[in-house]
Amino acid sequence: MSSRRSKFVLYCCALGTVLCDQGTKFLAETYLPLRSINFGKWLSFSLAHNTGCAWSLLPDRALWLAILGIFFVGIVLWKRHFFGVYERPITFGLLLGGVLGNALDRFFRGFVIDFININLQIYHWPAFNIADASLCLAAFSLLFFAPKI
User: Does 105 qualify as catalytic in the annotation?
Assistant: First the structure.
């Protein structure tokens, strides 16, 4: 894939992730504050505010986590050839979009909006959002589809 096309895919994927994330968070804030929506036993939507990072670690550190996220995005874009950003534009688009989606929440709200709940009966996964899901997909892709060195 050409460098120009890779950049286009990267930025479209990142922008699409941020827009989808922020749009669904807006809908969650609008429609879920007083109720939960259940889709069977294993999936539900209910509003949660997280002032920390994954699994509510480091609570009340929203500003520092947002700054760290933006710093991380800057490093990846600055060293894009080292990380192979243009060789895997969808993966890095999901990564950048996920970081930026949660950083926007932390900067402007002081917390991240989570609303997706998965309950497998034997394990209840902590609430998450579209940005978190895109970060997980990107991490999975980097771990399992990384080029052999």
Answer: no
Q: Provide the whole-model pTM.
A: 0.84
Calculate Rg over the CA atoms of the chain. 16
pLDDT by residue (tens digit) across 31-81?
A: 988 888 899 889 999 999 988 766 655 566 677 777 888 888 888 778 777
Q: Which of 21, 60, 105, 114 is catalytic?
A: 114
For residue 59, what is the DSSP state?
T
Write out the two tokens for 58.
């480091």
The answer to whether residue 114 is catalytic is yes
Do residues 36 and 46 lie in contact, with contact meaning Cβ atoms separated by under 8 Å? Answer: yes
Is residue 149 a part of any domain in this protein? no
- Choice among 21, 60, 105, 132 that is catalytic: 132
Could you tell me which of 140, 122, 135 has the C-alpha nearest to residue 76? 135
Residue 114 belongs to some domain of the structure = yes
